[in-house]
Design a protein that fits this description.
heterodimer; A: alpha/beta; Rossmann fold; globular; B: mainly alpha; ABC transporter involved in vitamin B12 uptake, BtuC; two-stranded antiparallel ribbon; two-stranded antiparallel sheet; 13 helices; sugar transport (chain B); transmembrane (chain B); transmembrane transporter activity (chain B); cell membrane (chain B); membrane (chain B)
Chain lengths: 501, 313
């Protein structure tokens, strides 16, 4: 009854959806899987009206529709249960449920709270949640809030004619096993009222709940599988699919690291709720890759090493010396460099030019008595612009106006020129085109050859496997497995996925 | 030349246009002696705006500058007799320390700077009332002339205040353009998170920016009290709005990171011309703040970088 036909969506530089066909029948549960950047979230945004497709058609019961915004989509029965919960914590449950639709309970601008509470109770009964609708939302558990969110979407049932389609975006990511089981039972029962689109990283859950599974990759639907038609490994193969080119990741340039020289050591590092008992060693010339799903603790580890968060337990050693109170400043002083994921926000300072950005981490080296040696700064920038072939008209170019790849080169030059020996790379190739990615891979190999230790959080699993000497697989903040990744003896994607999910 | 580039020169254009307009209406306005006199009179405000520039440049604001200047007029008047020239050190030191307090509250206790500086301003005001017994105080004229007379005289036809303003501007400009301190301020204003991820101790530089703001507000207060030969807890009221206007009209937006002290000089001159023109056009002193309020709103609306703001409350 709901259908997408040949839907296209383009963003500057990215073809996010390529002729996507999608169908969902009344009372059906459809799973949607794919890697980061496969186009899942773009597709969902098109479905619930946050994005307008550039081509193709949206059909409801065979009639073409067009949504200018999510509210219009809701009026046609399409609701979204957000992963980042959209409830306002300081309002009551019933106010949240009817947020934006209070008119039905108002007379002369005054809200009839009793009527609203009664109506809210009816909605909560649909999701089998027995709480007082007058409670403040922040007092609820996470799982309860998720159900309230679902109840809120189910109010569409009374408001719109026709069928409901409800999107569930990663609804299980913070639920425990029992809560997940309850949610799934509820969703199955609710198929009498609505169809569901279920998006999750957890393959077992998608296979458990869905009647059909759409597998996406590079903005395309690779396959549609009916229940029981495929096993998890096969779906995963379709998700990541493409052949890995050894040349692409510069594997021929991978040389063994210096196992005698430990640059960085974490022992028993823990931050409550984020990571626990993390122990690992980084050697000179090693590329150590942290692999795991979103929220598995990769970023927390990087931020701990850079001194942006303080571990509650355990020790960080740099060159064998314990670092009890590491701050970003002292981490940089000890030779740590950090290339953050949010390049435009944390990587470069837009509004400052190339040389100002490059020396930002090493102002002490380019000044005496606090007075900058601007001439030397400019010389440094010209040097690295030439060395890395940075496309900037000169060292005076505003970094905010450079392309993503060139911005990333500036960030890398900042740490390379400062002589950092431990470089933390968080998604260094995110959003870069192929040429720029290969430049980044070359730089990683060069750093290794110079004896720099690299801790990498890669954009894709292939990238992780291709680039690293060692892979540490994380799940729920703990280390699951450590793989040795010598060329010729690299683990496969499925070896990694097996430990990730 | 696109709109973005023209915007950079807007303060200069505005200044020239304003001077021309007032000059055409009143040719006497353009006499060098008149212009120099106007410039000399605006110097305390300029010094205050100079300090405020640093607080705004890093993306904060310092609402304590006016109360700081008030307090310093009292401190200078009370302690000139006993300390002589050393009173200047006391004044600047007090300004620096109270500025640091604002910065400390902002960075360590995570209180937004508009509130922390408002609170510190309250403290300054109260100290001024307490020290002065809530009365207007006078300096001993002879001692004032002996110790600080050089501040307010004339060299040829040029008021000495202008030399002081020029020296302070040169120092601030040097700090802004040629020192690690200025570079760090710029990075904090333009991209605080990136500055932090480059290992810069953001909190330390923010505290320093507020301290500089406090110290310059103290110098402004000291000069004001020397000019008036006395002090009172409310004597500098009416400075805050024009000082903020001077910084913003000059082209340092509330979001920080661009502009700087040279812009503030232009902004202050614009304020001076507006003020002078009000005299020519017969606008009463009591109505001046109305106009500055309006100019402030226009200045903020046209200079603020909305891409840096997600919501406005």
């Amino acid at each position: 009854m709901y259908e997408l036909r040949a839907v296209e969506k383009k963003f500057p530089g990215v073809h996010a959806l390529k002729s996507v066909d999608f169908k969902i029948a009344r009372g059906e549960i459809v799973g949607l899987v794919g890697e980061n950047g496969a186009g899942k979230s773009t597709l969902m945004k098109v479905i619930y009206g946050a994005y307008q497709p550039d081509g193709g058609q949206i059909l409801i019961d065979g009639k073409a529709v067009r949504f200018a915004n999510p509210r219009q989509a809701m009026e046609k029965g399409i609701g979204m249960v957000f992963q980042e919960q959209s409830l306002i914590p300081n309002l009551t449950v019933m106010e949240n449920i009817f947020l934006g639709y209070q008119e039905q309970f108002t007379r002369l601008g005054v809200i009839d709270w009793k009527a609203m509470a009664a109506a809210a109770r009816k909605q909560l009964a649909k999701v089998k949640l027995d709480i007082d609708p007058r409670m403040v939302t922040s007092a609820l558990s996470f799982a309860q809030r998720q159900l309230v969110e679902l109840a809120k979407v189910l109010t569409l049932e009374e408001r719109v004619e026709g069928d409901l389609v409800i999107l569930l975006d990663e609804p299980t990511s913070v639920l425990n096993k029992e809560e997940v089981a309850l949610l799934f039972k509820l969703v199955r029962e609710l198929t009498s009222r609505a169809s569901f689109i279920f998006v999750s990283h957890r393959m077992d859950e998608v296979m458990d709940l869905s009647d059909r599974i759409y597998v996406m990759k590079d903005g395309q639907v690779m396959d549609v599988l009916a229940r029981g038609q495929a096993e998890a490994p096969e779906i995963q193969r379709k998700m990541v699919g493409r052949d890995i080119d050894r040349e692409y990741y510069r594997e021929q340039k991978q040389v063994p690291y210096d196992a005698d020289k430990v640059l960085l050591e974490l022992s028993g590092v823990g931050i409550s709720g984020r990571i626990e008992d993390i122990s690992l060693k980084l050697h000179a010339g090693e590329v150590l890759c942290l692999v795991g799903t979103e929220g598995s603790g990769r970023e927390a580890i990087l931020r701990t090493i850079f001194g942006m968060v303080q571990p509650a337990e355990g020790e960080v050693r740099i060159d064998g010396a314990v670092q009890p109170r590491l701050t970003p400043g002292s981490a940089v002083a000890r030779g740590v460099g950090y290339v953050p994921r949010e390049r435009k926000i944390e990587g470069i300072v837009s509004g400052m030019n190339v040389y100002e950005n490059m020396t930002l981490s090493q102002l002490g080296r380019y000044s005496s008595w606090g007075v900058l040696a601007v001439g030397r700064e400019k010389a440094l920038a010209r040097d690295w612009i030439a060395k890395l072939k940075i496309k900037a008209h000169s060292e005076y170019a505003d970094c905010g106006n450079l392309s993503g790849g060139n911005q990333q080169k500036v960030v890398l030059a900042k740490w390379r020129s400062g002589g950092s020996r431990i470089v933390l790379l968080d998604h260094p190739t995110r959003g870069l085109d192929i040429g720029a990615k290969e430049d980044v891979y070359d730089m990683i190999r060069e750093m290794s050859a110079d004896g720099v230790g690299v801790v990498l959080v890669a954009d894709t699993l292939e990238e992780a496997i291709g680039l690293s000497h060692t892979i540490v697989v994380l799940k729920d903040g703990a280390i699951q497995h450590v793989f040795d990744c010598r060329p010729g003896a690299k683990p496969s994607l499925f070896d990694l996925l097996h430990h990730m999910i | 030349m696109n709109l973005q580039q023209i915007r950079q020169y807007m303060p200069w254009i505005a200044l020239v246009v304003l001077v021309a307009l007032v000059g055409i209406a009143n040719p006497g306005f353009l006499r060098p002696a008149n212009l120099l006199g106007l410039a000399g009179d605006i110097v305390p405000l300029f010094i205050m705006a100079l300090g405020l520039t640093f607080a705004i440049y890093i993306g904060g604001i310092d609402l304590s500058v006016q109360s700081m200047a008030n307090m310093i007029t009292v401190v200078a008047s009370v302690y000139l007799a006993s300390l002589g020239g050393w009173v200047a050190v006391l004044c600047v030191g007090a300004g620096f320390a109270l500025g640091m307090l604002s910065g400390f509250v902002t960075t360590r206790l995570f209180v937004p700077s508009f509130i922390s500086t408002l609170a510190v301003g309250g403290i300054c005001f109260s100290i001024a009332q307490w020290l002065s017994g809530n009365r207007a105080l006078n300096m001993d004229a002879e001692q004032r002339n002996a110790v600080f007379g050089w501040m307010i005289g004339r060299t040829g036809i040029i008021p000495n205040e202008l030399f002081i303003a020029g020296a302070l501007l040169a120092i601030c400009l040097f700090i802004e353009r040629r020192t690690t301190l200025g570079r760090a301020f710029k990075a904090v204003g333009a991209g605080e998170l990136a500055a932090r991820a480059s290992g810069i101790n953001v909190a330390r530089y923010k505290i320093l920016a507020f301290a500089i703001s406090g110290a310059l507000a103290a110098i402004a207060g000291l000069m004001f009290s020397v000019k008036l030969s006395g002090g009172a807890p409310t004597i500098a009221n009416g400075f805050l709005l024009p000082a903020i206007v001077a910084v913003l009209v000059g082209g340092t937006p509330l979001t920080g990171g661009v502009g700087g002290v040279l812009n503030t000089m232009i902004g202050t001159l614009i304020v001076a011309v507006i003020r002078a023109s009000m005299l020519y056009f017969g606008i009463e002193a009591t109505q001046q703040q109305m106009l500055f309020g309006l100019v402030l709103i226009v200045a903020i609306a046209t200079t603020i970088d909305r891409s840096k703001l997600r919501t406005v409350k």
